[in-house]
Amino acid sequence: MSGVVAIRLLSPLGAFEGASGVMLYAAIIPVTLGFIAIGRSIAALAPGQLLRGVTVIASTAMLLDALALRLMPTLYADTPMEQFVGTAYLLWAFAVAFALALVMERQP
Fold first, then answer.
1. What are phi and psi for residue 66, nearest 5 degrees?
2. What secondary structure does DSSP assign to the chain, as a single string?
3. How far apart are CA 14 and CA 42, in angstroms?
4. What is the pLDDT along the chain (108 residues), one digit of tens a residue?
5. Which of 94, 103, 86 has its CA nearest to residue 5?
6. Which of 12, 24, 36, 45 has its CA 20 to 30 A from that of 84?
7. What does each C-alpha distance from 81 to 67, 73, 77 come to in angstroms?
């Protein structure tokens, strides 16, 4: 849900273009850390369960985004190019979530 809102709000502002687009990629990292902390708390994950929990949550979100992008692409953005670029940011956010969970789970 947060992905669709971010794409819908930021795309018309040109936030995915140029230097702001690069900064947005970087900003996804701390935002994702926050979502991981929220998910860990809500799911009451025990030590050693973070990667599994993030995988379930992010995979479910990815499935829902894929269905929505296929069935209602204008929910995300008005033009095919904006949809394409927004999808790239979604994929980046999912990759960041998996990588952060892997690193965080290996730390004591």
1. -60, -45
2. -HHHHHHHHHGGGTTTSHHHHHHHHHHHHHHHHHHHHHHHHHHTPPTT-HHHHHHHHHHHHHHHHHHHHHH-GGGT-SSHHHHHHHHHHHHHHHHHHHHHHHHHHH--
3. 34
4. 678 888 888 888 888 888 999 999 999 999 999 999 999 999 999 889 999 999 999 999 999 999 999 999 999 999 999 999 999 999 999 999 999 999 998 876
5. 86
6. 36
7. 18, 11, 9
What is the token pair recorded at 16? 């995915």
Tell me the two tokens of residue 37.
């902390």
Q: How far is CA 85 from the centre of its chain?
A: 13
R_g of the chain computed on alpha carbons: 15
Cβ partners under 8 Å of residue 14, min gap 6: 20
The model carries a pTM of: 0.87
- Indicate the Cα dihedral angle 81, 73, 98, 63, nearest 10°: -150
